[in-house]
Amino acid sequence: MKKYQDYNPRKKEITPLKEAFEELLQAYRLKDRFNEKKIAGSWGELMGKSIASRTTSVYAKDKKLFVKLSSGPIKKELMMNKSKVLQIIEDKFGKGAIEDITFL
């Protein structure tokens, strides 16, 4: 019985919750989906109140962000500044989180 007493599959050192959560996302290969959900959820914070109020839905799939807008002029403005929007997302969430944006 003594040889089983020392066996413990858990790590012995203390890990911060953020690191443990990141390791969990890596282990189950969920990091990309988690980032997509975070980006879609923070669209209003990233773009501001005026754009957020004219956005009807935001969702992400396969590193592509889909944004449905109710205002034609704002849609055109965002399409012209697509690279700037991608840069804002990249600054906040890191490179490669979103590769393309489609405005609907």
Q: Number of helical segments?
A: 7
Distance between the termini: 65 Å
Helix/strand/pairing class, anyone?
alpha+beta
**N-to-C order of helices and strands:** HHHHHEEHHE
The low-confidence parts are none
Estimate what percentage of residues fall within beta strands: 15-25%
Beta-strand segment tally? 3
Radius of gyration in whole Å, from Cα? 20 Å
Task: Note the overall shape.
Answer: elongated
Describe the strand arrangement of the main beta sheet, using strand numbers: 1-2-3
| Major sheet | 3 strands, mixed
User: What's the pLDDT, averaged over the residues?
Assistant: 86
Question: What is the topology?
Answer:
Blueprint lengths: L1 H4 L11 H11 L3 H11 L1 H5 L1 H5 L1 E7 L2 E6 L2 H9 L1 H12 L6 E4 L1
Parallel strand pairs: 2-3
Antiparallel strand pairs: 1-2
